[in-house]
Amino acid sequence: MTDHIKIGDIQPWAQVEQTVPGTVAFEFPFPIFEDADLEVYVDAALKTLATDYTVTGAGVDDGGAVTFAAAPPVGALVTLRRRLAVQRTSDFQETGEFRARVLNDELDYQTAALQQVATDLERSVRLAATAPSIALDFTPAAGRVLAVNAAGDGMTMGPSVAHIAEAGTNAAAAAVSAAAA
Question: What is the pTM assigned to this prediction?
Answer without folding.
Answer: 0.71
